[in-house]
Every structure is written in structure tokens, then in C-alpha cells.
Specification:
The complex is a heterodimer of chains A (223) and B (100). Chain A contains ten helices and no strands. Chain A is mostly helical. In chain A, helix 2 runs antiparallel to helix 6, helix 5 packs across helix 7 and helix 6 runs antiparallel to helix 7. With 100 residues, chain B is of the alpha+beta class. Chain B has a domain of 52 residues: Ubiquitin-like (UB roll). Chain B is 25% helix and 20% strand. Chain B contains two helices and three strands; from the N terminus they run E-E-H-E-H. The longest helix of chain B has 13 residues. Classes of the chains: A mainly alpha (223), B alpha+beta (100). The interface between A and B is medium-sized, with 13 and 12 residues.
Chain lengths: 223, 100
């Protein structure tokens, strides 16, 4: 597999799995407006995944659906951060914010890519991610504004920090640390990043659920 | 807090009431309203007002049945024409074929 396909699949898998995880809040988010907003964000992520899979599929001679659903769990390249199942609001917001911050750094780099298709898709994604960032920053400000919120966010960020570093390649990690520390107004621990490559056990459970319809349908079924 | 949301479909058009959002403060309200009333390119602009900013009107009771203060059912067209005839300005009226 080319470096280009590998890159496209890594990001597509991040967006698909995070979209899936975020959609686990649909119907049970803290209140109705948040439910609608967070579900919409989840749908956007899955839309980004589809666009990225289509680019990769054209190169690999396959289809977006086959890439999204027909690989084995150990073939997914998503960062462990998005695989974790954390159905707890402070952790969800912490992951959302850490991911969006990392994603902004990654997209800024990709927008300068020599490959016009990659630069184009990164620019399109970035325009939609602007809403996601606005939403994440609003929650971070809200949590930082009270003692209780600050300590819950802090605890969640500390837990997820090694995973957040793992979303990015080595050279982009210092920028993530700089932005996160500036935003939180404190140092974050020096830790070994949990990088992509080894998948969490939780991904297998998600995969079972995500692919159950596809696996139960005859090959070539039309949707 | 409940916020009333008004949306403008295209630039220059009047704002119309779209619905409400419930949110802890103005910033949350704006971000939720963007999602609920702007996500599908259906709005060029949104205008949010906290429900408390909406005034109810109850200080103009019509105790003496002053019908003439209401315009419903009051045909002004004929009276206006007569008044214009008297003033000699009929040919200047809109639609009369004059310059104005």
C-alpha cells in the first residue's frame, strides 16, 4: 500500500470511528439541543470518512463501503484515542476537544500538500470542522469556568493525553502540546504517546456492531 | 434559558420566527441555533432574543369599541380617489399613468 493510501485510511478510520463513538450519545446526550448538535457532528465525521475512503478506494481499486466495513478489526489504522469507549460526558468533551485540536493541526499540514486531491479534501473538511471546534471550545470554556468543571475536565484530559498525542505524527506533536497547555493554562505530563498500530479491545466490540448488518447481508446487496 | 430564534432566509428579507432553543447561556444558544436553524443552508442570518426580552402587550384595552382605529374592513381606495379628485392630484396617483 502506498504512503498516500495509508495516510488517507488513517484519517478516514479516525473520522469513521470517532463519528461512531460520538453517535453513541444520540438520544441520551445531557439535553436535547446538545443531542442534536453532537449527533450532527458525528454525522459530519462519518461524511468526511466517506470522502476520504472514496479517494483511497480509487487508488486501491475498491469501494468506500468495502474499506469502511469489510476489513478485519486489526486492519483499521485509527488512533487509539477514537477507539476508546468513554460514555461519560467530561471524557467525551475532553476527547472531542483534544481530537479537534489535533485534527486542526493535521489539516493545516495537509492543506499544503503537493497532492491537489489531498489538499482539496483537507480544505473542505476544515470548513466543516470549524463548527466542531466552536462547539468544543464552548464546552471547554464552560468547564473551565467552575471549580467542579475544571477538575472534571482536567482529570479527563490527563487520562486521554497520551492517546491524544498518538493522533499525530512525531513532528506535529509539539504543536498539540503547545496549544493544549496554553488553553488549559498548565503543563501536561511527559508521557509515551499511545500511537496508531495496535488497536484497543474496544474497537473489536464497535466493529462487531458497526458491521453486523453488512455481514449478515448477501454479498453484493444494494442499499 | 429559553431563546427565541428568528431567521432570515436570504439577505435583505425580513426575519421570521423559527422556533426556540434552550441553552445555559447566549453562546451555547447561538451554537445550538446555528446547528438547528442554519445547518442546511436554510438561513442567511439568525437573530436570537432571550425570551425575557419579548414584551407582552396588555395596556391598550379597547374599552370604547373604537372601530375607526382599526383598518380591517375599512376601504380606503374609494375615499382616497375622491380626496385626490378634490385636490386635483388624481393624475399624479400611483398607477394613474403619470410620472409618479
Amino acid at each position: 500500500m502506498s504512503r498516500r493510501s495509508d495516510l488517507l485510511l488513517s484519517i478516514a478510520d479516525d473520522e469513521l470511528i470517532l463519528g461512531w463513538r460520538n453517535s453513541e450519545w444520540t438520544g441520551i446526550a445531557p439535553f436535547l439541543e446538545e443531542d442534536v448538535a453532537f449527533s450532527s457532528i458525528a454525522q459530519n465525521e462519518i461524511g468526511h470518512a466517506r470522502a476520504l475512503y472514496e479517494l483511497a478506494a480509487a487508488e486501491l481499486g475498491t469501494t468506500a463501503d468495502e474499506l469502511a466495513f469489510d476489513r478485519r478489526p486489526d486492519e483499521y489504522r485509527c488512533a487509539p484515542l477514537v477507539q476508546l469507549r468513554r460514555l461519560e460526558w467530561a471524557r467525551t468533551i475532553a476527547r472531542h476537544w483534544l481530537y479537534e485540536t489535533a485534527d486542526e493541526i493535521r489539516l493545516a499540514a495537509l492543506k499544503n500538500s503537493d497532492d491537489p486531491e489531498i489538499a482539496g479534501i483537507a480544505a473542505k473538511m476544515d470548513r466543516e470542522e470549524a463548527y466542531h471546534r466552536m462547539h468544543a471550545e464552548m464546552w471547554v470554556d464552560r468547564l473551565l469556568s467552575s471549580e467542579d468543571g475544571r477538575s472534571r475536565l482536567s482529570e479527563a484530559v490527563d487520562e486521554l493525553w497520551p492517546y491524544a498525542l498518538g493522533v499525530l505524527d512525531d513532528e506535529l506533536r509539539p504543536e498539540l502540546r503547545r496549544r493544549a497547555e496554553e488553553r488549559l493554562g498548565r503543563k501536561l505530563p511527559d508521557v509515551e504517546p499511545v500511537s496508531r498500530g495496535v488497536n484497543e479491545a474496544e474497537l473489536v466490540q464497535l466493529w462487531e456492531e458497526m458491521t453486523i448488518v453488512r455481514r449478515s447481508a448477501p454479498k453484493g446487496a444494494q442499499w | 434559558m429559553i431563546y427565541e430564534v428568528f431567521r432570515q432566509e436570504r439577505k435583505g428579507q425580513p426575519f421570521q420566527h423559527a422556533g426556540t432553543v434552550t441553552a445555559p447561556d447566549e453562546r451555547f444558544a447561538e451554537i445550538y441555533a446555528r446547528e438547528q436553524y442554519g445547518r442546511r443552508q436554510e438561513s442567511a442570518a439568525l437573530w436570537l432574543a432571550p425570551r425575557g426580552a419579548v414584551s407582552e402587550i396588555d395596556d391598550f384595552p379597547d374599552e370604547f369599541d373604537l372601530k375607526y382605529r382599526r383598518v380591517d374592513g375599512y376601504s380606503i381606495k374609494t375615499r382616497l380617489r375622491e380626496a385626490r379628485e378634490r385636490a386635483g392630484t388624481l393624475d399624479m396617483a400611483p398607477g394613474a399613468g403619470g410620472d409618479g
